[in-house]
Amino acid sequence: MTCLRFHTLSPFSVTLEHVPDRELGPLLTHLAEAGFENPVIKPARTRAGTRKAAASARGRKADLPDDWSLVRERKGESYQWPEERDRYSRYRVFMGTTRSEGVVHIGLGETVRKKKWGRDRKYVVAFLSSGAPQKPLAEFLAADDHAKSRELVAVIRGSDGGRRMYGPGDALPEVYEGHFRTQMYDDRVEYPGVWHKVVAVAGEDDHATMLNHALIQGRRRHSL
């Protein structure tokens, strides 16, 4: 996190606090184009406890669990889709508590699907699950640069209250603001026919992001 201060030619100074790292570069570019080429940049001095409290407050407002707890791992799990059966090399069940649903169990199953968007890709599928897979909620798949970035992406559905995805001009649900990093699907997966739709991005070890996305998707499609 950074604190940005710049001075104009008039007797004023403007301070922009807590600029996210990923937005600092574009902001500096815009300032330089406007003639402000020497801003004073200082790291924001935010205590870890304050950051954690702020994140917790945002989570409560969005009704997302403060924490997801691993409750069990299951071996030999699989799920039959209309066209194929997934067999999960790893299947973990997590528990979270929300104000709306109370205790929720969501499972994350890891697999590799052959010849998906031009290559074999890792998938992490989120299920409503008290044990074995029950109802699929969301799918994360490896981005093209997964070997380097270790990132997966998942489409955001529900713009019509069902399975319709969000395009570049659509307003995302407010809950995605501040909780998720989003990009365009075809920026992360390049292959003929890939959708020009918005995706949520998660590191392959970031189970909280995947679980929160699955929870929101379940709510928007009335699956919970």
Structure description:
With 224 residues, the protein is an alpha+beta fold. The protein is 22% helix and 38% strand. The chain has 5 helices and 13 strands. It has helices spanning 21-33, 48-62, 146-149, 185-188, 207-220, and strands at 2-7, 13-19, 40-43, 69-74, 78-80, 85-87, 90-98, 102-116, 119-128, 135-142, 151-155, 181-184, 198-203. Strands 4-7-8-9-10-11-13-12 form an 8-stranded antiparallel β-sheet. It is globular and about 65 Å long. Mean pLDDT is 83; it is low at 45-59.
Distance between the termini: 36 Å
Classify the secondary structure makeup into a structural class.
alpha+beta
Give the strand order of the largest sheet, numbering strands 1, 2, ... along the chain.
4-7-8-9-10-11-13-12
Q: What does the overall shape look like?
A: globular
Compute the number of strand runs.
13
Q: Uncertain segments of ≥5 residues (pLDDT<50)? A: 45-59
The ordered string of helix (H) and strand (E) elements is EEHEHEEEEEEEHEEHEH
Largest sheet geometry: 8 strands, antiparallel
Mean pLDDT: 83
Strand content: 35-45%
Task: Give the count of helical stretches.
Answer: 5
Rg from Cα: 20 Å
What proportion of the residues is helical, as a percent range?
10-25%
